[in-house]
Amino acid sequence: MLTDLVSMRSQLAAGQSSAAAELERCIAAAASPACAHVFRQTCLDEARAAAAAPGVQLLPLAGLAVSVKDLFDIKGLPTAAGSSVLAGAAPATADCSAVARLRRSGGAILGHSQMVEFAFSGVGVNPHFGTPAAHDARFGALTGPARVPGGSSSGAGVSVAAGAAFVGLGSDTGGSIRIPAALNGVVGFKNTARLVPTDGAVPLSTTLDTACAITRSVRDAIVVHEILAARRVTRSPAPLPAWRLAVPSTLFLDSLDATVAAAFERSLDQLRRAGAQITEIALPQTGELAEVNATGGFSAAESHAWHRPLLQQHAASYDPRVRARIERGATMSACDYINLQHARRAWIARMEAAVAGFDALLSPTVPIVAPTIASVAPGSERDAEFFRVNALLLRNTSVVNMLDGCALSLPCHQAGELPVGLMVWHAALRDDAVLNIGLLIEQELQKQ
């Protein structure tokens, strides 16, 4: 298992290593076969300077390596959002807010990590620049055929899981942090969207986009969230039995594959033995989302508004699977869009009322383990399988985005199993409870 950020900071403070030495280890990992296609472009000289800066080990990130999804501006690098359409963009003149906060906190920015073109898929495939293969941070490299890393923050997930970064900055619009976290055996925290600025990032959905990160542990997730949100997480001394937890059955437990079902049930059993209060609830409101989004949803409409000028000139250069989803937004009328906003607000109110009696909800992060890259690789003959997999991967996580909520994915699989994520989640601004509960769950599941 990889050393997490908090433990490494302790080692640096004790003089057992240095930020510069740890950065070189991460750079070597980034150049290894495990990280093939993980980085789009790097700024290693700047990263080395950050790691060598006087007093850096006293900062929260202590000069340790950070990868940045290719939709966030890094000063001096072009932001391509995983697309050949923007590959010739001029270098950014300033860091976006999220990158600036990480840099000021001692993060050594390695460069841009790979992503799905324009962040529009949960699978992680990129036909322009290559697809990273999933890695298991808990038990090492996966054997057998290469598997999808999850998206859209594909490079962020693999960079952390394969040891190239301690933090992977990414975005989450429908699950794009939590899906790669689940498929790579790492931790992904999607905060309440309004808590972290998204300026200087190529948008997918201005309503749903969230700037957040992948880390090696829940305690690392707390450190990084405090940096990105410029706020302190209120820590709770309450033990696991003091929290009221619920497992919703509607939608979230449908069509689980055998590995995910076994890992999730085993985890619930272990938490119950540790005294956790877990109540199974129906939560039928989640079954209403298909009707709410019937006209296309926010991502289609809002992405089309941003992409329309580019599509007029460069449509043929888009990944056809991405272009088709963006172009669906052209059919949504202003009336449809306004009605969607009203429907979402009403649905959120019903959901918040239904879960008000619980401190957090528990679900599988995604219902399936990572499929092989070959099964969903670019090609019209595989489109049906790609869209089937994409819908499954996004199904559970996207509920939280529509709820305007917060969620944490942490690994719950054992050695010999493909990575599986357990999602701890709730409504808006319940971030601190989710993180405190996630910390307790992680400590318990690590006893497996």
Concise account of the structure shown:
The chain is α/β, with parallel strands linked by helices. The protein is built from 15 helices and eleven strands.
Mean pLDDT: 97
How many H/I helices? Answer: 15
| Rg over C-alpha atoms, rounded to the nearest angstrom | 20 Å
Please name the fourth-level CATH homologous superfamily of the largest domain: Amidase signature (AS) domain
Rough shape? globular
Distance between the termini: 13 Å
Pfam family, one: Amidase
Domain Amidase: 23-435
Organism: Diaphorobacter limosus
Protein name: Amidase
Tell me about this structure.
It is a single chain. The chain has 15 helices and eleven strands. Helix 5 (154-161) packs parallel to helix 6. By secondary structure, it is α/β, with parallel strands linked by helices.
Features:
448 residues; alpha/beta; Amidase signature (AS) enzymes; 15 helices; 11 strands
What topology does this entry show?
Blueprint: H1 5-13, H2 19-30, E1 39-42, H3 44-51, E2 65-69, H4 97-104, E3 108-113, H5 154-161, E4 167-171, H6 178-184, E5 187-190, E6 211-215, H7 218-229, E7 244-248, H8 258-273, E8 277-281, H9 289-292, H10 297-314, H11 320-327, H12 334-355, E9 360-364, H13 373-376, H14 383-402, E10 406-411, E11 421-426, H15 431-445
Parallel strand pairs: 2-3, 2-4, 7-8, 7-9
Antiparallel strand pairs: 1-3, 4-6, 5-6, 5-10, 9-11, 10-11
